[in-house]
Design brief:
The complex is a heterodimer of chains A (111) and B (115). Chain A is an all-beta fold and 111 residues long. Chain A has no helices and 11 strands. Classes of the chains: A mainly beta (111), B mainly beta (115).
Chain lengths: 111, 115
């Protein structure tokens, strides 16, 4: 069975501060991992994904995530938050033809 | 590419009425997904298709919900009869890589309000 856990449904950071959104997964087979972002009144769009190869993955808008198999984690980071980063972020895991989304983390950026 | 297209963008209907949501996936994508998003339950996978065939409909809440994909470029999600608790944003997504390697491309969603 697979599952995705996002710690913290709401995260607030100051503009210019580090963004860290946590994601842990459980999977019986090597997973593929994704981060999506959802802006208000829009659909989800892909930020980045890990399939194979390098464990540090870089995505759009300065975000990156590191796959740590030993910790079963795929945390999302950005060195310096921008006001435009305020959105809902979803971690997702897939294996075979099963695809699971986390419950989402709402990011607020304080000016 | 126009991306995933959903219609209508907003739907307001009365309880008991039939509602049909429509989706056009990205050309060439062979997977299509229907999701429902609410504040209480978050993002839920309702059903997905591969090559127009329903693969997993375990997320469909009850018999009032049905989904079809008559061809590679069109899918519908129907609710009959609708109830206030069906109010949500319904997303369609498509993908073109099997085995879960491919990312899903989401449409803008249909916001359904049942009064």
């Amino acid at each position: 069975a697979q599952s995705v856990t996002q710690l913290g449904s709401h995260v607030s950071v100051s503009e210019g501060a580090l963004v860290l959104l946590r994601c842990n997964y459980s999977s019986s087979v090597p997973p593929y991992l994704f981060w999506y972002v959802q802006y208000p009144n829009q659909g989800l769009q892909l930020l980045l994904k890990y399939t194979t190869g390098a464990t540090l993955v870089k995505g759009i808008n300065g975000f990156e995530a590191e796959f740590k198999k030993s910790e079963t984690s795929f945390h999302l980071t950005k060195p310096s938050a921008h006001m435009s980063d305020a959105a809902e972020y979803f971690c997702a895991v897939s294996s075979g033809n099963q695809f699971y989304f986390g419950t989402g983390t709402s990011l607020t950026v304080i000016p | 590419d126009a991306g995933v297209i959903q219609s209508p963008r907003h739907e307001v209907t009365e309880m008991g009425q039939e509602v049909t949501l429509r989706c056009k996936p990205i050309s060439g994508h062979d997977y299509l997904f229907w999701y429902r998003q609410t504040m209480m339950r978050g993002l839920e996978l309702l059903i997905y298709f591969n090559n127009n065939v329903p693969i997993d409909d375990s997320g469909m809440p009850e018999d009032r919900f049905s989904a079809k994909m008559p061809n590679a470029s069109f899918s519908t999600l129907k609710i009959q009869p609708s109830e206030p608790r069906d109010s949500a944003v319904y997303f369609c997504a498509s993908s073109n890589l099997a085995g879960g390697r491919g990312e899903q491309y989401f449409g803008p969603g249909t916001r359904l309000t049942v009064t």
